[in-house]
Design brief:
single chain, alpha/beta, 21 helices, 470 residues, binds zinc ion
Length: 470
């Protein structure tokens, strides 16, 4: 439903008055302290949502979407916990398996009860690992890799089972974050994820609960929190207790998140188009207008298509015009929504908007010059040239081909390499990257490869993107 003009004007007026022009004022004292000591590195893209913020389907989808091909079917059997399949598993591609997961008809054991699911899975994995330790000889590299994978799977289960963002953060800081390699303090940009809006039902913690959990933690730990926005929340007129919002959930929460009179603030916003909307959605534009005016940075997912909308066919809003989401498959539709060029009219409309196109188009865009998303690189460079557009290479670190091409381009000494040196930030995409490989080792390798340019990625470029002055 469209907001009336005078309501919209009132929203903008309140936002203009209650949101500070000074980005530094949105930082927590913990963060300010670390900046003052001036011996720190950034992770510009991380997640600490726990088991209560996701569901069984998200968990399985993440793995099936990203585990090495050689383990795909083995992982499917372990994670879906189904004795028999109605299809021939060996003949299924990764995409087909993802489609089955997205098809609501698949029943996974305990898929309504994520805690129970994780506990059962933990026991299974522990038992298999124990057998490895006690009796099985590691006869081959494959065995060795599988054992390593099971170890990682077990770590992720344990992280998610804690059911507290603070515990997830603690694990991240202790074992996986970049200051374990680079030394000094760590400042982490933590991106919230609003899975509730489009995936809904089985997720235990509400949007509101996650809103406060991340916000509160940011005042205890050196976290720079980003609020997830989903335009469809503009249709929510009442809160959980049935009280009517002044505008709607999307606009009211935005005002609350950035209110200078509140003792705690969010710092930026996060967009995830593949969940079923375009960045040019008319409901988002007033928010981007405020973001541009107040120096609130925006991060968007601009990578792979593993996480997406469930729907088979649906319409999206493009500046108020209703258009069909293009594509003949789930993957194609998600890819269409994630395209960096969807941001071009938004950036033109809101001059000065700071945008991070997360994942730099995705590992596939970097792996080969002939891939279906290879065109994204050039488009991102063009956007960088004309706008305050940044990027991060998170999630792609484990992909050797992508990383090598990235480093090669970085060292080209041309206009594009200059853009990379001044606009690209370091990020991990913890914890969603964990199923793929050993994050800390990948980070170490990446730092070695980028050499002298790492300082800018770890610090200077992030400071520029965030617009921090102190
Ligand atoms: Zn991410």
């Amino acid at each position: 439903m469209k907001m009336l003009d005078d309501q919209l004007n009132l929203f903008k007026q309140i936002a203009t008055e209650t949101i500070s022009n000074n980005a530094d004022s949105r930082l927590s004292p913990v963060v300010k302290n670390i900046i003052k000591k001036n011996n720190f590195v950034y992770d510009a893209h991380a997640h600490i949502f726990d088991g209560k913020c996701i569901d069984v389907k998200y968990f399985v989808t993440r793995f099936i979407g990203s585990v090495p091909e050689k383990f795909l079917r083995r992982v499917w059997r372990v994670l879906t916990r189904r004795e028999r399949e109605i299809f021939k598993l060996n003949e299924m591609s990764r995409e087909q398996l993802l489609d089955i997961l997205y098809d609501d008809k698949l029943k996974i054991r305990y898929d309504e009860d994520f805690d129970r699911y994780l506990s059962e899975l933990e026991t299974t994995v522990e038992t298999e690992l124990k057998q490895f330790n006690e009796e099985k000889e590691l006869a081959s590299i494959l065995d060795f890799d599988w054992k390593n994978f099971l170890g990682r799977l077990l770590s992720i289960i344990k992280i998610l089972k804690t059911s507290r963002m603070s515990k997830v953060y603690k694990e991240f800081h202790k074992k996986y974050s970049v200051q374990n390699i680079e030394g000094g303090d760590l400042l982490t940009v933590v991106l919230g994820m609003d899975l509730n809006m489009s995936w809904g039902k089985a997720i235990q913690e509400s949007y509101d609960e996650q809103f406060y959990e991340l916000l509160d933690l940011s005042y205890r730990k050196p976290i720079i929190p980003f609020l997830p926005l989903d335009p469809r929340r503009a249709e929510e007129k009442n809160d959980e207790d049935g009280n009517e919002y002044q505008f709607n959930q999307l606009y009211d929460k935005f005002l609350e998140a950035f209110d200078k009179n509140s003792d705690r603030n969010y710092f930026g916003v996060k967009i995830y188009p593949a969940l079923g909307y375009l960045p040019s959605d008319s409901r988002l534009q007033p928010l981007f207008e405020i973001c541009a005016a107040k120096g609130i940075p925006v991060v968007t997912h601009c990578g792979g298509e593993v996480v997406s909308s469930f729907k088979w066919g649906f319409d999206v809003d493009r500046f108020g015009e209703i258009v069909r989401c293009e594509g003949n498959s789930r993957k194609e539709r998600a890819r269409w929504l994630n395209e960096p060029l969807n941001w071009k009219p938004v950036l033109e409309k809101h001059g000065g908007l700071k945008l991070n196109l997360g994942h730099f188009g995705g590992a596939d865009a970097w792996e080969s010059s002939k891939g279906e998303t290879a065109h994204r690189k050039q488009e991102i460079f063009d956007l960088m040239r004309d706008h305050s557009v940044y990027t991060d290479f998170s999630f792609n670190l484990e992909d050797e081909g992508a990383t090598d091409n990235f480093v090669q381009k970085l060292q080209n000494e041309d206009e594009e390499s200059e853009l990379m040196k001044t606009r690209c930030m370091f990020g991990t995409d913890f914890w969603v990257v964990l199923p793929m490989s050993n994050l800390l080792e990948d980070t170490r390798q990446f730092m070695m490869k980028v050499g002298n340019d790492k300082k800018k990625m770890l610090k200077d470029n992030v400071i520029e993107f965030l617009g921090i002055n102190s």
